[in-house]
Design brief:
Elements (H helix, E strand, L loop, with lengths): L12 H7 L1 H33 L6 H47 L2 H6 L2 H43 L1 H7 L3 H38 L1 H6 L3 H54 L8 H42 L20 E10 L2 E11 L4 E6 L5 H8 L10 E3 L2 E2 L5 H7 E4 L10 H5 L9 H13 L3 H5 L18 H15 L3 E5 L7 H15 L3 E5 L3 H4 L4 E6 L2 E6 L1 H7 L2 H19 L1 H6 L1
Parallel strand pairs: 3-8, 3-9, 6-7, 7-8
Antiparallel strand pairs: 1-2, 1-4, 4-5, 9-10
Length: 599
């Protein structure tokens, strides 16, 4: 089955049902055939029994032959109904996963601050599974109950309207019980699935931060916290189980009361006989068979109702993700055919809540040039990098690439123009080569491996990758836990180089490397600057000096701009950075083992 286009998929319960209506109609047709076959079996059973007790036993075999043929037909129809309807439920689940992933890719940081990864995973697994059961088993049972009711009612009314009315005395009670439990089941199910989300979130955070938990000896504390959530989930699950456990017996007992009424009044009619206004032995059996076909689906509706309400609750929780508004909307301009990579920033102001992060930042960077952005911690450097890549909601008209407002460009085109390597490098739990070649369609191909090795060499991580147990096929673990911080940074840098964008934004790629490696990476960045526009976020003067222009931020504003020599001569913030780092370097050299030995 081809991967569906998420933009064509409905995100409502009714929309999904209508999308798969053909499959449900086919399932309903074969379910109708099944119930018709069962209806005819009831009548043929009546005929066969009346012949047996009427002295015509030799003719009963014809009815038995037809009953066998109809039973085979009913079996095939029953299997076919499950094929169509259960497959529709699976297709809904498949498409909802695609829709969910698309929404998660489009949502921004505000959403992920509100909903944890564990909570999202709970909705993507448990809640989505409940939705599948709703669209499969739930729909099947609802259709089957309606058709079984019609099929059985036809038999019962033709045999005896009065016996039918007597057998239906308990139906109002069944309806009231079902309605009473329905709302409570929905609410309890939502509570249960919400606590399950909290449980998944707690487990995910403990797994992601297992080293921190161990380093602070907080295992006991975390076990207590997890135990509290686990008990909450246990109580919610038991409350739901008690509700289901009381509903099914109540429905069963009420239905059984209807059967007892049938036996009491039906036996009276049977003893009276057909000639005295009663019923025959065959009619008694046929009525009992039809009543059983009607009663069992009604009893099963208790379980089906649980499935439906769990599915509804799951869909409501998924709807919170589907209805979340993306912070960043894709533009509608045609994608640039041949982007050059020039950057123009004009009056860029960005607020986090009411707190200004950047204020009136402006600069221009021609295509193929390099710019270093420096500033103290909290000056807005990383925020500016994110806004250039439009990973935060960039204000309209503030940032232009080749003259086009980034807000007007399609996000897919923008991501092809700008490559961003973040300071806190994220690696996937796969091999080194697949992390570096993440943007390649076939990262394991020979041509791709050559590009991966070249990028690793440029990022000064090739030798270390080859020294790993399985070289480029070494799995780096969750978030790259098997590697050092410097290795993770350089692999992320290599990943950005493989992507080969026209604008390369590097957010402090040197914060976790030694001086020798730093120099080699800076050489690589200089080579990259000849091929594309480079924006380097850094706190190191040695790195900034390699760039053509330097922009210094202070409290979110542009404090200085110029070349290395110009800013040193000016004696401002940049010059103070240079003095601080020069003195620190001299002190470190004096404290090094080599210097101590020479002394």
């Amino acid at each position: 089955m081809p991967f569906p286009d998420p933009h064509t998929l409905p995100s409502t319960m009714g929309g999904q049902f209508r999308r798969h209506l053909p499959a449900y109609l086919k399932g309903a047709v074969v379910l109708g055939l099944f119930q018709l076959a069962m209806n005819r079996i009831d009548w043929l059973s009546k005929t066969a029994i009346d012949r047996l007790f009427g002295g015509l036993a030799g003719e009963a075999w014809r009815s038995a032959t037809w009953i066998l043929a109809l039973a085979v037909t009913a079996f095939v129809a029953r299997v076919a109904s499950r094929f169509f309807i259960f497959n529709a439920g699976r297709d809904v689940e498949y498409e909802m996963r695609a829709l969910l992933l698309d929404r998660l890719h489009r949502l921004g940081t505000a959403f992920y601050r509100r909903m944890s990864a564990g909570e999202i995973m709970s909705r993507a697994t448990n809640d989505l599974a409940q939705v599948r059961l709703l669209y499969g088993f739930g729909v099947l049972n609802v259709i089957n109950v309606l058709l079984a009711f019609a099929s059985a009612l036809e038999v019962m009314l033709r045999i005896s309207p009065t016996l039918t009315a007597a057998s239906f005395v308990t139906v109002p009670a069944l309806t009231l019980i079902t309605r009473a439990f329905s709302k409570r089941m929905f609410l309890r199910t939502r509570e249960n699935q919400a606590v399950l989300g909290k449980l998944a979130s707690a487990m995910q955070s403990n797994l992601a931060g297992v080293r921190v938990v161990r380093s602070f000896a907080l295992e006991t504390h975390e076990r207590r916290r997890f135990d509290g959530i686990n008990r909450e989930y246990l109580e919610a699950s038991l409350a739901l189980a008690r509700l289901r456990g009381s509903m099914v017996p109540m429905l069963g007992a009420t239905s059984a009361a209807g059967v007892l009424i049938f036996f009491w009044y039906g036996s009276t009619l049977l003893l009276r006989g057909p000639l005295a206004g009663g019923i025959s032995k065959g009619e008694f059996f046929a009525f009992l068979s039809a009543l059983g076909r009607m009663t069992w689906p009604i009893i099963a509706m208790g379980f089906a109702l649980s499935i439906v309400q769990r599915g509804r609750a799951g869909f409501v929780r998924l709807q919170e993700i589907f209805d979340a508004k993306p912070e960043i909307e894709s533009g509608t301009l045609p994608a640039p055919a041949a982007p050059k990579g020039s950057i123009d920033v004009s009056g860029l102001t960005f607020l986090h809540g009411d707190r200004p992060i950047l204020s009136d930042v402006s600069f221009s960077l021609p295509a193929g040039e390099s710019l270093a952005i420096m500033g103290r911690t909290g000056s807005g450097k990383s925020t500016l990098a994110l806004l250039l890549a439009r990973l935060l909601p960039t204000p309209k008209g503030a940032v232009r690439f080749d003259g086009d407002d980034v807000c007007d460009l399609p996000l897919s085109a923008l991501r092809g123009i700008v490559g961003y390597a973040q300071q806190d490098a994220f690696l996937f739990s796969t091999t080194v080569s697949r992390n570096i070649g993440f943007s390649l369609s076939d990262p394991d191909g020979a041509e791709s491996m050559a590009r991966i090795r070249d990028a690793a060499r440029e990022a000064q991580v090739l030798e270390e990758a080859l020294s790993l147990p399985e070289q480029f096929d070494t799995v780096v673990g969750e978030r790259g836990v098997q590697l050092s911080g410097g290795q993770r940074q350089r692999i992320a840098l290599a990943r950005a180089l493989v992507w080969g964008p026209k604008i390369l934004v590097l957010d402090d790629p040197l914060s976790a490397v030694d001086a020798r490696t730093e120099s080699a990476i800076l050489d690589a960045i200089e080579r990259q600057a000849k091929l594309r526009t480079v924006v380097l976020i850094t706190h190191r003067v040695a790195a900034a000096a390699r760039c053509g222009q330097i922009l210094v931020l202070d409290a979110g504003r542009v404090a200085e701009r110029g070349t290395h020599d110009e800013l040193i001569a000016r004696g401002g913030i940049y010059a103070s950075f240079a003095d601080e780092q020069r003195v620190r370097g001299e002190l470190e050299s004096l404290e090094s083992p080599d210097a101590a030995g020479a002394a």
